[in-house]
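Before relying on records like the one below, remember that each one covers exactly one chain. Contacts with other chains, cofactors or solvent are not represented anywhere in the record.
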Amino acid sequence: MSSLVETESTKVENTTEESNYFYAIPGDKIEWTYVPPSTNVNFKTNVWSHFYANLGLYTNEIADNYNIDISQGGYKNTSLEKIYEAYNDTGIIVGLVSNETYRQSLIGRDGAVVIPTLFTGATFSGDTTLTGLTSITNYLTFFNSPELLQRETSGTCAKTVGDTRKFEFLKEVTIDTGMGQQSGKGNSGSSYESAIGFMFNDYTSLTSGSTSGFSQGHKVDNPYLNNKKTAQFNGFGYDRAVGMVDCISGIICFWDPNIVQGFNFYSATGGTGTTRATFPPTEAYAVVKDFDTSISANVRVNANPDVLKFTTNPSRAQAIAEGDSNCEEEVKVTQVCLYDSSGQVTAIGTPTEIIKKSDNYVVMNLKVRLDGGIGDVYGPDVNPAIYPS
């Protein structure tokens, strides 16, 4: 049986679901690569050099801005100043997160990336006070801004603006730098969000006057309501970002010279040297949340009494011809197809209950997913005894 019935109304609905716990992305699901600086003789032919564009570094002139003082329009003496040294002298470390480990996007509001380190040897020329550290935990946090800690709603448990944002939205580090994807998927509100988050640690991020404590408020509900440490972009006590995470693409990038030189590739179990290296699960891992979205259409159909009254289903016709007394005359709807204006099938669904059509009106409310729907979170609630952060 088939009959076309005009839809009464269609309403498109967007649903967003954040993972309600932190989970671990193990070391064998992230591929790490060292990318040489622009002064390297093979820079222009190295296939990995394009990751500098992820930092908005398309030309030498753009990179030079990071060596110009902030008072003159540059980024020296700001949180991003070490990008200049990375581009020209020490290079960057890029980690590619397997897209199997997160749904639509990671969340840059809070999280951690733990890396193995070795701050000794002939190739290390950085801060000698780091000697002895075999790993460093780098935390995702937002830059401090006037609106970050404002309450979104009233009440003692009201979320702050920072607790509702998924990605960094400070203009100076996103729009002005060219970093990010211009609009982060799954956001609401008018404030710009970039689909990226910046990383800081309690060692190489500190400058004169700044304080440690980036682990504060990590892995708690509404972290900024619960005093999560934010980063200061410039001025006395500013905090140096050590890298960033592109949350949608799953690209981790470290530019801090100490981190780049001290990243310990020797414990890698996969890859080739410093290219696409993977590690045991509890080394070079991330502790994160993610989110997924779904787009669906709520379609209302009102079948008038004069439609869906007859069927040409050949099996029913045959049953009647053969004298099947169990074949009822009442028409039953067991499948619904939605067509577009050109007559092409766009969706096929089965009602939760068989619809019996009589001489009365029959109203059908159909919900059709227009994408893959919301998937399952990659892993269980993180075990801090296995994946400390």
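The first helix runs from residue 60 to 64.
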